[in-house]
Structures are given as structure tokens and as C-alpha cells.
Write a structure and sequence with these properties.
This protein has about 325 residues and is mostly helical. The chain folds into two domains: about 1-125, no CATH class; about 135-310, no CATH class. About 75% of the residues lie in helices and about 0% in strands. It has 14 helices and two strands; from the N terminus they run H-H-H-H-E-E-H-H-H-H-H-H-H-H-H-H. It has helices at about 1-10, 10-25, 25-35, 40-50, 70-90, 95-135, 140-155, 155-175, 180-200, 205-220, 220-230, 235-255, 280-305, 305-310; strands at about 50-55, 60. The chain has a two-stranded antiparallel ribbon. Strand 1 (about 50-55) and strand 2 (about 60) form a beta hairpin. Helix 5 (about 70-90) packs antiparallel against helix 6. It starts with a helix and ends with a helix.
């Protein structure tokens, strides 16, 4: 339990590092900002519940950042621009230590007085929206992401949007409904690639489709998506249909992802719900139905396409 909870409790620290790498901020500066957001002294100020003013002037919004996602991402994004400003203002002779120092001096009041609270507000709005969907239409998210998961990945939105959404949902409700959709979407990518592998006669293409198909089933879909399915197009269409079928099953059954993690057979245990044993069973049924449907549809479409058959050496 401690190992599972630790990354969520210190989520700002983890995201501070990954966001720093993404936005080009000095990772040590980013980590320092993330650590400040969960520092025991700051948490004690929240528990005290008394008004706080930085330097006696700037009002501090005592938002709690442990287990949050959006505030630290927004803070590090702003820090990337502040760091560029600090680099311009830092004399070359002392830039090595003055740039990070100036960045931290500027970002500290911005983090606790403006940007952090703004991110916290956005997170609450996001949680409110998720709450409406997960309470009133819990079937929608598995169906949508089951069908359009590969499109979301191609647009790069799985990092920018869906991961923060899933983390926010798990933090707020103890589960998320996006995970089942991505589970069947990943299985569909793998099944489509493996169907192509069965039909392929070209040794190199067969090897590519087999290896990427297995990887997709285990949870990593990009090689299968870009190397096989999108390249041949019809396997991608089949994976969308297969993912839709699996998404409908998971949506109607109300399958939930209990612990955040990549979705595939290697991490299928994240769908085990201590309070509902059938959650895992229906997840497996969704996986089986998705694989079977996608494989059959892909096989049928590819067998009738002379252009694809020629490309795979059949």
C-alpha cells in the first residue's frame, strides 16, 4: 500500500521532473519547485488554516498540491519562460549559478501566489467535469477511448490530456474510466498487427508485425500503430471497430481502472477491484472480445485488399 500510494502523494515531484525534461527547464530547479509544493512546512501552514502573506505583502493561496497533476505542470511550463528570461538577465561570468537562482527567486511567489492556485482551480474544474461524466454516463469514456484511442495517441493527446485526466480521476474517485478504453484499444492494435503477421509471407514484414503486435498486447502500441496498422490503413480501421466492441462491453459492465498504470496484459492486475471481483472478469471479457473481433475483421479486410497483400508479400 505504501509503495502504491507514494508516487501519488509525491506526484508534484515526479511531474516536476518529467515536465522539466519536456519544457526544457533545469531538472534540479524543477525538482526543487516540486519539492517545495509538498514541503512539510507548507503542509503545516495549510493545516493551521491561517492567512499567510509572502514577504508580508503577497497573499498565499493555501492550496494542497499533494497528489495533484495540473498545478505543477502549469508551474513548470511558466518556469520554462522564466528560465529564458533569467538566462538573458544573467551575466555570462556568473550564469552557471545565477540563472537557476534567479529562476527560483521569481518562481517561488509565482508558484504559491498565482500559478499554483490557478492550476489547482483548473484541476477542480476538471474533476467536476469528470465527476459528471463518471456518475451520469460512465459508459461513455470506455467506449470513446476504446474506439478512438489510437487517434488520441497519434495526436499526442495521451500525454497532454488523458494522463492528467486519469490521474485526476483516480485521485478524486479512487478509479478512472479511461483505462478500460485504452486497455481494449491497445489489445485491438496488437490483434490487428498479429492478423497481418498471419497473412504476411514477406519474412521481414511478418517479423515486424509479430513483434509489434505482441508489444501492443503487452501495453506498448506505437510500434504496431505506426509500423503496421497505420501504414496499411485497413488494420487501423479494424482496430477502431474492435476497440469499439470492447469499449461497449467494458462501458456497459462499468469496468474501472483502480490503480494508474499502462494498460496491457502485463499490467492487467490494475483492474482488480477489492470491492468488486467482477470488475476484473469483465475486463478480461472485454480483452478477449476485442482481440477476437479485431483479428477476424483485420483478416477479412486484408485478404480482400490486393494492394496490402502485395506489400506484405503474399
Amino acid at each position: 500500500s505504501m509503495v502504491g500510494d507514494a508516487p501519488f502523494y509525491f506526484m508534484p515531484v515526479i511531474l516536476a521532473y518529467t515536465s522539466s525534461v519536456k519544457f526544457g527547464v533545469d531538472p534540479m530547479v524543477g525538482l526543487t519547485i516540486g519539492l517545495c509544493m509538498v514541503h512539510p512546512t507548507y503542509l503545516s501552514l495549510i493545516d493551521a488554516g491561517e492567512a499567510v502573506r509572502m514577504f508580508g505583502l503577497l497573499p498565499v493561496n493555501l492550496a494542497k498540491y499533494t497528489s495533484t497533476v495540473l498545478p505543477v505542470i502549469l508551474v513548470i511550463y511558466v518556469a520554462s519562460w522564466v528560465q529564458k528570461l533569467a538566462e538573458k538577465l544573467s551575466p555570462k561570468v556568473i550564469r552557471f549559478f545565477f540563472k537557476p537562482l534567479l529562476t527560483l527567486i521569481i518562481m517561488t511567489p509565482l508558484t504559491f501566489c498565482i500559478v499554483g492556485p490557478l492550476g489547482n482551480l483548473c484541476g477542480k474544474v476538471l474533476e467536476g467535469g469528470l465527476s459528471i461524466v463518471q456518475v451520469n454516463a460512465p459508459w461513455f469514456l470506455p467506449i470513446f477511448f476504446g474506439a478512438f484511442g489510437p487517434i488520441v495517441i497519434m495526436l499526442g493527446m495521451h500525454y497532454a490530456v488523458t494522463i492528467p485526466l486519469a490521474l485526476a480521476a483516480i485521485q478524486a474517485f479512487g478509479y478512472d474510466m479511461l483505462g478500460p478504453g485504452f486497455l481494449v484499444a491497445n489489445i485491438a492494435q496488437g490483434a490487428a498487427a498479429l492478423a497481418v503477421a498471419v497473412l504476411a509471407k514477406d519474412k521481414d514484414f511478418k517479423s515486424l508485425a509479430t513483434s509489434t503486435g505482441v508489444s501492443a498486447i503487452l501495453g506498448t502500441t506505437e510500434p504496431a500503430l505506426y509500423g503496421v496498422n497505420l501504414r496499411l490503413k485497413k488494420p487501423l480501421y479494424a482496430s477502431i471497430l474492435g476497440g469499439l466492441i470492447g469499449g461497449i462491453i467494458c462501458g456497459i459492465a462499468g469496468v474501472k481502472r483502480i490503480v494508474f498504470g499502462p494498460t496491457g496484459l502485463t499490467s492487467i492486475a490494475i483492474f482488480i477491484d477489492p470491492d468488486n471481483g467482477m470488475n476484473f472478469v469483465f475486463a478480461l471479457i472485454g480483452v478477449a472480445a476485442t482481440f477476437a473481433a479485431t483479428f477476424v475483421i483485420t483478416y477479412a479486410l486484408v485478404r480482400k485488399d490486393r494492394g496490402i497483400l502485395k506489400e506484405i508479400g503474399r
